[in-house]
Amino acid sequence: MEKVKSFLARKNIEITWRRYAIDALGAMAQGLFCSLLIGTIINTVGSRFGIPFLTATVATVGGTDYTVGGLASAMSGPAMAVAIGYALKCPPLVLFSLITVGFASNALGGAGGPLAVLFVAIISSEIGKAVSKETKVDILVTPLVTIGTGVALSAWWAPALGRAAMSLGTLIMWATDLQPFLMGILVSVLVGIALTLPISSAAICAALGLTGLAGGAAVAGCSAQMVGFAVMSFRENGFGGLISQGIGTSMLQMGNIVKNPRIWIPPILASAITGPLATCLFGLRMDGTPVSSGMGTCGLVGQIGVYSGWMDAVQNGSRGAVTAFDWAGLILISFVLPAVLSVIFCQCLKKAGWIKEGDMKL
After folding, report:
1. Please, which residues have CB within 8 angstroms of residue 223's CB and are 6 or more apart in sequence?
2. Phi, psi of 62 (to 5 degrees)
3. pTM of the model
4. CA distance 93 to 137
5. Which of 63, 96, 150, 304 is the most exposed place for a label (fewest CB within 10 A)?
6. What is the band of 265 on the pLDDT scale with cuts at 50, 70, 90?
7. Alpha-carbon Rg of the chain, whole angstroms?
């Protein structure tokens, strides 16, 4: 056993919750952002503002035309896998081999590809690290083992993992359509909490393919956390804190939450209110990419995703024109209500002595 522990330590293989569920998952979300999400944003900007360079075909592969954004989106599998490998501190030959692994697992996983990429890339990375530099022909052995493991696992696991992820996501979306009030609360609160925790709400939403009303509730919950903490802590952190939390991440408050968990109550309560308002009153839907559902106001990606979904629906005739009521709902759910409700709840808790000045200082 001691030899095994020594070998794992030498190879920097840590079989821990933090390494896989926090570091790897968070990195996967960054890979998604730098490929699928940024590609979607590029396509949206290009089509809505009529920018020829962004809408023109720059490559044709296998009869499929790709724009700049299309090429970025097509690389989501490799980007996720390499990001995971980077988080797991893979040596170069393993890291570069993960490009093929990510492509295979994402392609074979179908719509639930991101979940397949997470599992397959983690295992391939660790096996690749284990054999790395153990032979005199490392440049052959390490890529062969990493790619061979990844492709084999992709063929074996990815379709089932993809179907499982999509089935769960479909169940959540079906339940939200059936019970928009209760599920609006549940999805908004849970995804919002995931956003502030050191895990990735964006990766979770992407893995589950969370769109529709459930995606709208997720946007509400994430926005409540980010805007809520940004506005509540304005006295302590000023405009810098407002920007870094409001369009950055509420995860910055995790240290303060550990010190005083009660500061988390206001944005959670706000999300429990904005979630059902999004589903029941405004019918807020995320018909853009699923990863946008878990981004909230981070770079305004959640709002861009909702908008791109509106425009796509208008173009394909599945909905009429975007109305002032639609815009009012998006602005109220994303910005106004989270700010107002969180401040009100925060003041109540301050009067009760549960929250004190300086508790949210970054």
Report:
1. 274, 296, 297, 302, 333, 334, 335, 338
2. 60, 30
3. 0.77
4. 12
5. 63
6. very high
7. 22
Beta bridge partners of 65: 60
User: Into how many domains does the chain fold?
Assistant: 2
Query: How big, in percent rounded to 5, are the helix, strand and coil portions of the chain?
Result: 80, 0, 20
Q: How far apart are CA 67 and CA 60, in angstroms?
A: 9
Q: How far apart are CA 184 and CA 204, in angstroms?
A: 17
3-class SS at 293?
A: helix
The answer to whether the beta carbons of residues 187 and 217 sit under 8 Å apart is: yes
What angle separates helix 138-178 from helix 92-108, to the nearest 10 degrees? 40
Same domain, 296 and 204: yes
Give the integer Cα–Cα distance in Å for 27 and 90: 13
Which residue from 191, 170, 169, 186 is spatially nearest to 298, judged by alpha carbons?
A: 191
Q: How sure is the predictor about 228, in pLDDT bands with cuts at 50, 70 and 90?
A: very high
Q: Which residues have CB under 8 Å from 180's CB, separation 6+? A: 213, 276, 279, 280
Report if residue 123 sits inside a domain: yes
Which tokens sit at 137?
């022909």
Q: What digits encode the pLDDT tens for the residues 65-112? A: 999 988 998 999 999 999 999 999 999 999 999 999 999 999 998 867
The residue from 114, 130, 162 where one domain ends is: 162
CA distances (Å), 301 to each of 37, 248, 261, 304, 336, in order? 8, 11, 28, 5, 17
Pairwise CA distance, residues 161 & 56, whole Å: 35
Alpha-carbon distances of 234 from 17, 244, 332, rounded to whole Å: 33, 11, 20
HSE value, Cβ hemisphere, 13 Å, CA-based, for 181 = 0
- The answer to whether residue 173 is domain-embedded is no
- CA-based nearest residue to 192, from 39, 341, 91, 12: 341
Task: Kindly state the DSSP code that residue 261 receives in the 8-state scheme.
Answer: G
Question: Is 171 within a domain?
Answer: no
Nearest Cα residue to 300 out of 102, 68, 44? 44
Asked if 33 and 144 sit in the same domain, the reply is yes
